[in-house]
């Protein structure tokens, strides 16, 4: 189960990092778009969330 949650965490962090990079790229031209905090694609945070879901 830990391996599956690790894979899910990696996918979530990758997607959020790509969204962050896209918003950052767009912000070079449009200054008013707010970007998400870098903590959103932190692996430790998502592992902790998934661990609490997996093991009640």
TrEMBL record:
Keywords from the UniProt entry: Membrane, Transmembrane, Transmembrane helix
Spans traversing the lipid bilayer: 7-26
Superkingdom of origin: Bacteria
Designated name of the protein: Uncharacterized protein
